[in-house]
Design goal:
heterodimer, A: about 575 residues, alpha+beta, 7-stranded antiparallel beta sheet, 7-stranded mixed beta sheet, 21 helices, B: about 575 residues, mainly alpha, two-stranded antiparallel sheet, 19 helices, 4 strands, about 65% helix, globular
Chain lengths: ~575, ~575
Amino acid sequence: MVYTVVCQLCRSDGRGARQSAGRQFAAGPQRRAAKKLRQPPTDAAFQPQHLAPSLVDASTLRKGDVVLVEAGDIIPGDGEVLAGIASVNESAITGESAPVIRESGGDRSAVTGGTQIISDWLVIRIGADPGESFLDQMIQMVEGAKRQKTPNEIALAILLAALTIVFLLATVTLLPFSIYSVLAAGQGTPVTVTVLIALLVCLIPTTIGGLLSAIGIAGMDRLIQANVIAMSGRAVEAAGDVDVLLLDKTGTITLGNRQATAFLPAPGVDERTLADAAQLASLADETAEGRSIVVLAKERYNLRERDMHALGATFVPFTAQTRMSGVDLPDGRQIRKGAADAIERAVQQQGGQMSAAVRSIVDDVARQGATPLVVADAGRVLGVVQLKDIVKGGIKERFAQLRRMGIKTIMITGDNPLTAAAIAAEAGVDDFLAEATPEAKLALIREYQQGGRLVAMTGDGTNDAPALAQADVAVAMNSGTQAAKEAANMVDLDSSPTKLIRVVEVGKQLLMTRGALTTFSLANDVAKYFAIIPAAFATTYPVLDALNIMRLATPESAILSAVIFNALIIMP
Amino acid sequence: MTINSLLQLGFFVLVLVALVKPLGWYMAQVFSDRPVGLDRVLGPVERLIYRAGGVRPAEEMTWKQYAIAMLLLNVAGWGVLYALLRLQDVLPFNPQGLAAPDPDTVFNITTSFVTNTNWQNYGGETTLSYLSQMMGLTVQNFLSPAMGIAVLVALTRGIARRSAATIGNFWVDLTRSLLYILLPLSLLWALLLISQGVVQTFSPYVPAHLIAPTVDSAGAPVTEQIIAVGPAASQVAIKQLGTNGGGFFNVNSAHPLENPTTVSNFFETLALVLIPAALCYTFGKLVNDTRQGWALLAVMLLVFIPLLVGTTYAEQQGNPRFNEFGIDQTASALQPGGNMEGKEARFGITSSALWAVATTAASNGSVNSMHDSYTPLGGLVPIWLMQLGEVIFGGVGSGLYGLLMFAVVAVFVAGLMVGRTPEYLGKKIEAYEMKMASLAILVPPAAVLLGSALAAVTPAGLAGLQDGGPHGFSEILYAFSSYGNNNGSAFAGLTTDSPFYNIAGGLAMFFARFWIALPVLAIAGSLAAKKSVPVGPGTLPTHTPLFVFLLAGVVVIVGALTFIPALALGPVIEHLLLYS
C-alpha cells in the first residue's frame, strides 16, 4: 500500500547501517606490522630486547604464531599471553577507557587484536586465523542481527489495511447505488469516477500514512533537543513500545568507579591507624578509587589530607608487575595497598605473614560483591579497605518508575554472578546478566524478542555492537567506539546512559500523538461523507442538501474543499 | 414518547437484565461440567448419545479439529435438509400434499436454516409439510444456535486457558448446549406459549365457515376459509430462543396463532435476546471475572437502548403527509397514534418497535410487524443494527463472539493510542489475532455492500422490487444486510424467491456464518496456546466504563464509516423526501 512505501522511504536503518558497521571493524587490524618470533622464548628470565623478532604484515599471522608486543604497539591478533605483564587499553573493544592488566596464566591471559599496549611488553601466541578473530565474529554477529518490526507498527498496518478495504467497499459500491438512484429518481447523472476517486482518496488513511513519517521526524527532533541523535523515526517509535531495558552496569547503574566504603582492620590494629595508613598510601593516587579512600578517611576520622612534599614522602606508582601502589616515608615506613595476593607476596618477601583473619575478611568482602584492597606497612598487614560499586542516587526510584510503566530492567555486567547479584539487589533491577559475553547479550535479546518483547539497550563498546544491532532501540554513547555507534540506531551526545529513560518517554509521546491523529483522521472521515455525499448526489437527490451541514456552496467546491482539506492536514 | 411506552421499554430491559445472572450462571455450570440438576435425568441420555456417536467426551480437540467437526456437521446437516425438502412430496406427514420447492429455493432455505439466518422466501403454511418443518427446519433451529454456543465456549476456553493445545470437544459442547440449555428452555417456552393459545397439533388445516360471506377478486362468492394450523408452538419457542426467526406461518409472529396475546408477545420478545444477553454473564463466569461479562452486556445495552428509543419515537411521530389530510396522529386513550401501518392492533407501536429493534439487534429475524411499513428513520434502525455485524446481542453465541472480535480491535486501537502491546483478559493480542478479527469484521459488510450493489444494477435484482425510488433501495439494502449478517428478517416488499436472490443471498449467508466462525476458532486456538500475562500497571482494564465506551465506539464507528453512503441513499433520502 501507499503508506508502506512512504514509510520505507523515510526510514533509513536497515542493512546499510549494519554493513557499514562491519566495514568499520574490518578497517582496524589490517595492514599493520607485527613483530613475529621464530619460537616462544624458552628461558624464563629472558628480556624482550634479547629476542630477535622479524617484522611481518599482521594479516599474514596464523594460528600458533608467536609475536612480541611492546608499549605503544597494537596487538596484531587475538591470542594468549605466554610471557610478560602489561597494561592494555581495550577501549576499542569495550569502550571503557581504564586500561586493564594482561598477564600469562589465569583468567587475564587473553588479548584481543586491535587493542593497544600502554606499558611494558607481552609475548603472545596468536589463537585465531584471519577471519576467525573476535572482531570477525563481531562482524558476523552484527550482520546476522536483524531488527524486527515493532508490534505497534504491525498493528497499525493491519488496522489501516482493514480500513482501506472498508472504504474501498463503501466507495466502489457507491457507483451501482448511484446508477440505481438516478433510475429511481428519474433525474440527474450517476456519480463520476473522478468524484469516487476523490472520495476514496479523502477516506482511505493516506493521511495517516503521510503523517507517520512526519511524526517520526518530529520525534527525532524532540530527541535532538535532549541531545540524542536518532538515526530513524522508527527507532523512536519503537522506544515507546519497549518492555525490556538492558542497561550496562558500569556508568549507568553504578557511578562507574569503585569507591571506598569501609575500613576493616586486621586483628590488633586500630581502625583509625588503618584509615591513616590507607590515606597516606592514596595521597598521590589520582585514580577515583584512591581519591575515595582519602575522602572516606577524612569523613570517618577527620583525617586531614596531608601534603606529600611536607611529609617528604615518595610515591610508589602502580605497575603491572607489582600491582600495588603506596608511599615510602622518611621514617622508613613503606605503606602499600593492592590486591590481596600481591600484598601477600610483598609481605612474605619482607618476612611477614598475612593472618587467616585478614584472609577471611578479604573473602567476606569479595562475597558481598565488593573489591577488597589490602593495606600493609612494611611487613605488617594493617587491614582491608572495602571498595564498592556505588549505586547511583535515585536510580532505584527510576527503576520503580519504569516498572510501573511495565518495563523490565536488566543489568548487564562482566562481573561474576555473586557481585552482580549483590549490585542488582541494591539497585532494584528486575534481573541481571553476569559475566556477559557479546554472544550472551545477543542471545538474551533474541530470547526476549522471540517472546514478543521489544528490547532497548545502551552500549558503548565494540563488544556491544552485535547486541546493539539486534536491539530494537539501541543507544550508543558518543564516547563509545565507532562500531557501537554504527550498530546502534541512536547516539547520545551526552554519553549519559540514563538517557534511555528519556528516550522511552519521547517514544511514548510519539505513539500517543500518532494514536490521537489516527483517531482524529478516522473521525474526520465521517465529516468528509457529509461534504461529498450531498455534492455527489446534488443532481439526483437535491434534498440530500440537508446533509450538507457545512453549507458548501456548490458540488464542485464541496469536493474540492474536501480534497484540499485532506491534503492540508498532512502538513505538520 | 408516551409514558406508557417508556414504562413498557423500561420493564422489558429490567426483566431481561434480571434474568441474565441466573441463566448465565446456569449455562456456566453446564460448560464447567458441574452438576446442574438436570443431569440426573439427562445424564444417561447424554452418555447414550456419546456412545452411539462414538464420541470420547474426555478427548479434547485442537482448534482445527474443532473447526472440522463443526464444518462436517454443517455439511451433513445441509445435505439432509436439502434432501428432505426436495423430497417432501413423497415423504410422510404432508397432509396438504404440498409439492417440493424448486432447487434454488431449497438451496436458499437450506443455507438459511443451517447458518442460523432463517431467511424465508416462502410461506411456511403453503410451501412446507409438517415433516419438513419438524424434522428439517426445527432440527436446524436447534443445531445452529447450539453450534453458536459451542464456538463461543471454545473461544472462551481459548481466553481462559494457558499454554494449552486444545479448546474442548465440539461434540460435547454441542450435545450439552442442546440437552441442558436449548431443549429445556424451549420446552418451557413452548408450554408458556401454548398456555397463551399458540397452536400445537398434527391435524390437517381447519376449514371455517365465514360469518359474513364475501367475494374474491374474480367476484366469486367465498363462504369458507381454510385456517392453517400445525405443530407451531414447539417451533416458535426455539425460533425465538435460538435467534432463528423462521416462522411457522408466513407472517411470522404477527399471526394470531403464532403470537396471540400481549403476554405471548412479551415472552417471545424476551426470548429474542435472552440467551445472547445471558451468555455475557456465562462468559464472565468462565473467564473467572464476571465484571468482564457485565461490561460486554453494558456495551450491548449502550447501543441497544438509544436505538430502541429512537425507533419508538420515529414510529410515534407518524407520517407527516397524513397531517395534510387533517388526520390526528397523536396518541390518546382511544388510539395508539403514530404510524400504525403494518402493525398489529393487538401490539401497537411500542411492542412492535421493541420487537423490530430486538429482532435485528439479536440476529433473530422473526417479526410481529412489517418493517417495510415503518417510517424511514424507524426502518433505518433495524437495517443499521444488522449492519453493525449482529454483535448487539446478536445470534446465540455468534453475537458475543462477534463482539469479542470487536473487543480485540478495540484493545488494539487503545494499545495504538498509548503505545502498549494490547492484551485482552491476560492474553496478548498480536498480529495474528488482529488479522483474524479484521477478517471476521470485514466479511459481513463486504457481503452486504457487494450483494446490494449487484442487486441494484442487474435486471434480476431489480425484478423483485415492489416499490421504486429510494424505498426500493432500502428494500434491497435490508435484504442483503439480513443475509450478510445471518439475521433473516425481511423488509417484506422485496420478492426474493427468484434464482438471483436465492443464490446471491445463499452465498452471502454462507460467507457471513463461516467466515466469522472459522477466524474465531483460529483465535481461540492461538489464544489458548499463549501464556497469561499477569495484570500489570500497563494493562488496560477491560471492565471499566472507559472500555465500554471505547468498544461501543469502535462498533458504531466501523458501522457508520461503512454504511453511511448506502444509508444516505435509502432511508435517509426517504426521510428527507417525506418531510420536504
